[in-house]
Every structure is written in structure tokens, then in C-alpha cells.
Amino acid sequence: MLDADFFRRWMTATAASVDREADRLTALDSPIGDADHGANLQRGFTAVAATLKEEAPATPGAVLILAGRRLISTVGGASGPLYGTLLRRTGKALGDSPEVSDTDLAAALRTGVDAVATLGGAAPGDKTMLDALVPAADALRDSFEAARDAADKGALATTPLLARKGRASYLGERSIGHQDPGATSSALLIAALADTAQAASGGKDGGSGE
Questions:
Q1: CATH class for domain 2-200?
Q2: CB 93 within 8 A of CB 112
Q3: What is the pTM of this model?
Q4: Where are the alpha helices (DSSP H) in 3-143?
């Protein structure tokens, strides 16, 4: 079972990963976006980590709702509302339980991903964060490691795609050949989840349904 501390560690691990990869995210965003994806997410998740260090939400859902609100209030552009919606809706789907199962998290994450799709009006194949998040949410029903692998593959698979949504869509065919920064940062979020789960299980990745 996963408690509030697990979710705090997930958000902290995400903040550390985004901090390490901020320059790469910005480099990916430079040719097809506003060249600020890395800096924006770095600012947002740094704020999330700081907030969770000061506050101690008692439930997994409350941790994610707080993190989502913090992202919306600190991240500019589309990333704040999209990531904020992802975490808030996932947190709300988890409810008020002090502990949740892997299966609960997989179902809740899918709810959050669906909310992102509705907000952005996008679908898998449109060269957005959904290309990493949708397969990750599906694979999380099997294991955390499967979710990580699915997100990584989904992000890489955006490179040859034509962008149909977001800033990159304005470039038309010039968006082809560039890996989507949103899908890449989404893969970092899922990788941090898998790392957190692996650390919690003593180095062995756990399957869903605990």
C-alpha cells in the first residue's frame, strides 16, 4: 500500500529530476516551442517540493491536490494548467484514503490523464504529453517499471510525428523530427514514480494490485 509519504517522495524525486533535466527540456522546446519548458517546470516543481517540505498532507490524494495547485500558481504557459490538472484530478480520484493500492493509483492516474486530454483537446498521436502519459497509465496496471518503459517509448515516438496541438502545431511539417518536450517531461514524472516505488520495495519493482 502507498501512503502520503510515498507521494511526497514521488513529487520530491520529480522535482530533482526536472532540475537535472531542465536544460535538456528547454533545448527540446527551443525549435518547436517557446524555449521555456525546462525553466517553467523547474520553477514549478521546486515550489512543489518546498511546499511539501513545509506542509504535511495526511493522504495521498491531498499530496497530489496540493502539488497540482502549486504548479498552477507558479508555472506559466500551458504547462501549469496541464500538469496541475493531471495531479489534482489524480489526487481527487484517490479520495480521502490514508493508503491506496497500486491498482487504485493506476485507475486514478488514468482519470487525471483523461482530464488533461479534455483540457487540451488532444489525443495520443498529436505530439503532446499524452503520447507518454496514456501508455504509462495503461501500463501502470501491470507494474511501475512497465509504466516507465511505456512513457519513455511514447516520448521517443513523438519525434517523427506532426504536431497537431499546442505551440508546435503552428510550425506544421517543421515540427517533424523533434521530440516533444511535454512528453519528455511526462516521462520524467513517471520515471520518478518508478524510482520511488523501487526504493520503497527495497530495490524490487512491484506489480500493481498490492
A1: mainly alpha
A2: yes
A3: 0.93
A4: 4-29, 37-54, 60-74, 79-94, 102-120, 130-139
